[in-house]
């Protein structure tokens, strides 16, 4: 990662881009579009509603689910030099960003009428019209797998020798995670420099008629500025990941309605791929593709044998589907850019070496991630008495995938662990659940799917813990913390989650032959829950406690932050 000074000079070669919104289409040259329409394609689906890739004012938290923008960039080797930046200035930047967060609920219809007109004004103020017009993004939309698919595709293209940019949401611990250059989070120095340029320019030229952009709008504008200056540009290829029920307060109550929104970014002349979908969803996609004259190609899961015994960098059987889509996206980009001659294939029936390297080295925190707890470990970290299994699943479909992964990862019957999988141990084990979800989610959809899938795989939870997210206190600033005094904390949502869990049929017995449906706890804060887990593990070192953390990427990020800080 290069650090420091001024913006790099412009370079002639173009390179790919990809975003996590949907798009299906065949290989041909993209038609020119008016700039505002082009901006809509980059930031939204097709209706006037706020869309995942588009900044809007209705998301209550900084980490709300948002798709990914993958932007492999022009090949160049530019060195930077500049002054090191202290954390105090970064905290000031985070404070400014936090001031843009609105508390409107997601489905609030306020201020939508002039959303795109406002966004167009912001783009003009920042003089980004030409840069955005040159962005030919690869859209990747869907209900689940957007971030994983973009991560795989970015890693493949980087392994092919291209400089890459990746824009994803939400972040887990630091807002800079949303902006990755060459596989690394943007440096603090660069982030601060680009932030102040956008912030001061907008502050100087906005007012009553044109207010400062809200949080997500600002981040999207910042991404455009970063990637245009860093020469992240490219032709188009699009993908739609698995579709299901999520963000229903915005996208609709039926799978057909949700799919129509996801298909809104289909464009003529753009090659597109999707994965096998439910019949209702596929019929909507095909209809929209036909209307646009687009040939929609269906991609199937990657055959593990094509990896030459290398594991995927992201774990879980569902990742083979995401990997298959990522391969199609990366291969199409390379083909359209005339770079297929870069690929090296050792054996027929296997993937090119660069693809294998990219897929096996891909990394995305909070998705199928396993972390032994350092405070309760023996001398060998691999024999920890307390192990956290992190997965940010937050839809009913992803809950099922999460449960299968957890059952597989904790199974000691001859499973050989991958790079981040928990090694086997002869000790007895206990499965705990640490759960929270946002209030816009339906726990009646999430928890039964999780419990049933675990039971089908022979896995039962000894204890379920429900906690509020830590991030509701610290927002963006790393120096912020939960209330120091014993203030009144609203745990009504966590108590309702506990009730839903308690009403589910639990057929297994827990410790001391007590029915496990009664083994639940609600904690006032996440640190208290982690403290209790550590103390429990410390007192029972002959047992390995395997804790599944799921239901919310915010929760997963909070746990990662606490474990990283060893608190």
From TrEMBL:
Stored Gene3D superfamilies: Mur ligase, C-terminal domain, Mur-like, catalytic domain
UniProt family annotation: Belongs to the folylpolyglutamate synthase family.
Pathway(s) where this gene product acts: Cofactor biosynthesis; tetrahydrofolylpolyglutamate biosynthesis
The keyword Manganese belongs to this UniProt entry's keyword annotation: no
Key words of the record: ATP-binding, Ligase, Magnesium, Metal-binding, Nucleotide-binding, One-carbon metabolism
GO molecular function: ATP binding; metal ion binding; tetrahydrofolylpolyglutamate synthase activity
Cofactor(s) essential for the protein: a monovalent cation
UniProt KW Zinc keyword: no
Protein name: Folylpolyglutamate synthase
EC number in record: 6.3.2.17
One of the GO biological process terms: one-carbon metabolic process
InterPro entries: Folylpolyglutamate_synth, Mur-like_cat_sf, Mur_ligase_C_dom_sf
TM region positions: none
Catalysis performed (reactions): (6S)-5,6,7,8-tetrahydrofolyl-(gamma-L-Glu)(n) + L-glutamate + ATP = (6S)-5,6,7,8-tetrahydrofolyl-(gamma-L-Glu)(n+1) + ADP + phosphate + H(+)
């Amino acid at each position: 990662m290069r650090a420091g000074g001024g913006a790099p000079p412009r370079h002639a070669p173009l390179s790919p881009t990809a975003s996590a919104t949907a798009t299906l289409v065949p290989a041909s040259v993209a038609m020119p579009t008016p700039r505002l329409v082009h901006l809509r394609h980059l930031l939204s689906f097709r209706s006037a509603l706020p869309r995942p890739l588009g900044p809007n004012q209705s998301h209550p938290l900084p980490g709300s689910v948002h798709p990914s923008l993958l932007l492999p960039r022009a090949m160049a080797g530019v060195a930077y030099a500049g002054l090191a930046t202290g954390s105090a200035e970064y905290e000031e930047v985070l404070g400014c960003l936090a001031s843009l967060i609105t508390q409107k609920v997601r489905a609030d219809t306020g201020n939508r009428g002039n959303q795109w007109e406002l966004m167009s004004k912001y783009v003009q103020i920042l003089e980004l019209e030409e840069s955005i017009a040159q962005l030919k993004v690869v859209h990747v939309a869907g209900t689940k797998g957007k971030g994983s698919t973009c991560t795989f595709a970015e890693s493949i293209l980087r392994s092919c020798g291209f400089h890459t940019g990746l824009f994803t949401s939400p972040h887990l611990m630091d807002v800079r995670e949303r902006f990755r250059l060459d596989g690394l989070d943007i440096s603090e120095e660069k982030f601060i420099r680009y932030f102040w340029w956008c912030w001061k320019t907008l502050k100087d030229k906005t007012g009553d008629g044109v207010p400062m952009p809200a949080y997500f709008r600002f981040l999207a504008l910042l991404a455009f500025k970063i990637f245009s200056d860093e020469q992240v540009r490219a032709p188009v290829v699009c993908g739609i990941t698995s579709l299901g029920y999520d963000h229903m307060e915005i996208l609709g109550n039926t799978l057909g309605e949700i799919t129509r929104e996801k298909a809104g970014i289909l464009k003529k002349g753009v090659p597109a791929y999707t994965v096998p979908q439910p019949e209702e969803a596929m019929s909507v996609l095909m209809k929209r593709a036909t209307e646009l004259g687009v040939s929609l190609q269906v991609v199937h899961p990657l055959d593990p044998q094509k990896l030459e015994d290398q594991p995927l960098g992201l774990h879980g059987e569902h990742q083979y589907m995401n990997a298959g889509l990522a391969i199609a996206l990366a291969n199409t980009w390379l083909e359209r850019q005339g770079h297929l001659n870069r690929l090296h294939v050792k054996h027929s029936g296997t993937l090119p070496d660069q693809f294998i390297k990219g897929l096996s080295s891909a990394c995305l925190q909070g998705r199928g991630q396993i972390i032994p707890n350092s405070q309760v470990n023996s001398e060998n970290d691999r024999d920890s008495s307390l192990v956290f299994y992190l997965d940010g699943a937050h839809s009913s479909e992803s809950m099922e995938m999460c449960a299968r992964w957890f059952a597989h990862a904790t199974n000691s019957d001859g499973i050989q662990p991958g790079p981040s999988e928990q090694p086997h141990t002869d000790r007895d084990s206990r499965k705990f659940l640490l759960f929270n979800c946002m209030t816009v989610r339906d726990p009646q959809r999430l928890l039964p799917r999780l419990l049933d899938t675990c039971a089908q795989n022979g896995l039962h939870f000894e204890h379920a813990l429900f906690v509020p997210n830590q991030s509701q206190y610290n927002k963006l600033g790393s120096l912020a913390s939960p209330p120091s005094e014993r203030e009144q904390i609203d745990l009504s949502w966590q108590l309702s989650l506990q009730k839903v869990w308690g009403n589910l049929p639990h057929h297994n017995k827990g410790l001391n032959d007590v029915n496990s449906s009664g083994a639940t706890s609600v904690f006032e804060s996440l640190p208290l829950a982690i403290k209790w887990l550590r103390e429990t593990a410390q007192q029972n070192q002959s047992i390995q406690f395997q804790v599944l953390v799921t239901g919310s990427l915010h929760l997963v990020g909070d746990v990662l932050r606490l474990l990283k800080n060893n608190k």
